[in-house]
Amino acid sequence: MWERTQAQFAAALRDARLAAPASLVSERGAAADRFEVYRNSVIGGLIRALATRFPAVERLVGEEFFAAMAREFVLLRPPTSAVLLEYGEDFADFVAGFAPASELPYLADVARLEDARVRAYHAADIEPLSPLSLASVAPDRLAELTFEIHPSAFVLRSDHPMVTIWAMNAGEAEAAPLGHWDGEDALVTRPRMRVETHRLAPGGAAFLQRLAAGAQFGDAVRAAIAEEPTFDLSMALVEALTAGFFTAFGGDT
Amino acid sequence: MDEVVSTFSSRLPARAGVGFKPAHFDTILSGAPSVGFFEIHAENYMGDGGPPHRQLSRLRQDYPLSIHGVGLSIGSGEPIDRRHLERARILCDRYRPESFSEHLAWSTHGGVFFNDLLPLPYTRETLERAIEKIDEIQSCLGRQILLENPATYLSFMETEISEPEFLAEIADRSGCGLLLDVENIYVTATNKGFDAAAYLSRFAFAHVREIHLAGHFESCGASGEPFALDAHCAPVAEAVWALFAQALAQTGPVATLVEWDNETPEWAALAQEAQRAQSILDNASRRVA
User: CA-CA distance, B15 to B28, in Å (whole number)?
Assistant: First the structure.
């Protein structure tokens, strides 16, 4: 009995065209108005949750546009878990296909970056590999090393200046005219309690993505050079180590 | 069940506590305020790690802790989400809170989480369902839980049991305690046009292990009728303080939380609300003595 009424209540919350259960009564005011209170609270609350998770996206498109875009997402892909800190992990994919936002082709990449930062924030706490630890590896064994990647680490690639646009809309950099419109790759990590966002030099993303996929060090370097002949290995390695990208390495014995 | 309840019943001190907000963490750490306990929302701490857990672990060293869930959907007609219950168990095992509480409401249906505390009819059927779920939760967590009376805006024709009676029977039969939210009583009474004090007088005070206070948003409905939204966005209203005093006269001093979840104020404003609750608790203690 209750299960059927509840199913009708739930369906009507998500679809304003559906009728609320006929057995709802309001002692004061119309039952339909009161049902609307619940509907607004549910939809509005989820839109606010997305705005909290994607503040730079909201800033880029404005509050009103964001709320309209988020409303469509909420209705199409409502949360499947009560753990709302995980809600919106597929919002960037939705933004990429959201036709009214197609004039901002970088918007989905900025959403991906913000999503990665939230995931990094809540990732497991593991001490990163010390930048000094590779010093003990014999140079002729280096090429065969493989690495464990930190649970907070994400490598993101973009055909747009994703990192610069994000930084200017997240209070991390002064808003200014963009000096270029080249693609930017990012490394997100949280080695300890602060989430870091690094703009990777050319070839850097290919290098880190190969290592994250379990490739040997030598193969990752080759992949990076194939993509970018001027790839600066020592700079990329120092950046990854200081950002806390690795937690452990193997294959040196 | 009796043994579980006596060993693991709620152990919050009979003092005023506040809802923990990360924005207050540094102020709390440097000022070491005299607060009876802190309460957190369970689901906000179900991530793997990071600053939320770092802060909570630190806070836990100095203060009693109450974990308050919104996701177990006790009022649902569907079975409990075992995966979510397991995450609640992991959280309780990690922090060993003095209390774990949930709501007489539903928030999940058909695999969708609605992020709201939704109403249910009070019938024999929903009563049995709620008791089954609470049994399952209490045996999984290995502790007594507290069940909170909801703020509602609507009723169901199916309802055949009054809310105070419904809560009392659940507590009697499942062994759970009750979390008396006087703010929710005020909001529901305003929206349904009944007398909050009369409702409160019928509450099962012997089962009350915690009280909640909060601020609401008051306006008018479409036809000019009074309307209150349980928004946790303002100081506690005078009418709610009066209900609090009325409740304490029945329960004696009991753990009391000031909730202020939205438009969070400076720590000082929240601490002032908690101080007022503490003074009323102190008066209640003197009367008991």
Answer: 17
Per-residue pLDDT of B137-182, as tens digits, reads: 999 999 999 999 999 999 999 999 999 999 999 999 999 999 999 9
| Element of type H or E holding A9 | helix A2-14
pLDDT at B289: 66
- What distance lies between CA A191 and its chain's CA centroid? 17
CB of A19 within 8 Å of a chain B CB? The answer is no
The structure's pTM equals 0.95
Judge: domain B2-288, CATH 3.40.50.620: no
Region A119-125 average pLDDT: 98
pLDDT tens per residue, range B221-241: 777 888 888 877 788 999 999
The owner of tokens 């600066």 is A232
Domain ranges in chain B are 2-288
* Residue A76 forms contact with B (CB below 8 Å): no
A42 lies within 8 A of chain B by CB: yes
Ordered DSSP codes for B64-91: -EEEE-S-S-TT-SSPP-HHHHHHHHHH
Write down the pLDDT at residue B3: 45
Q: CB B156 to CB A21 under 8 A?
A: yes
**Which DSSP helix (H) or strand (E) runs through B276?**
helix B267-288
Considering only CB atoms, which chain B residues are within 8 Å of A79?
112-113, 115
Return residues 67-96 of B near A (CB < 8 Å).
70-73, 76-78, 81, 83-84, 87
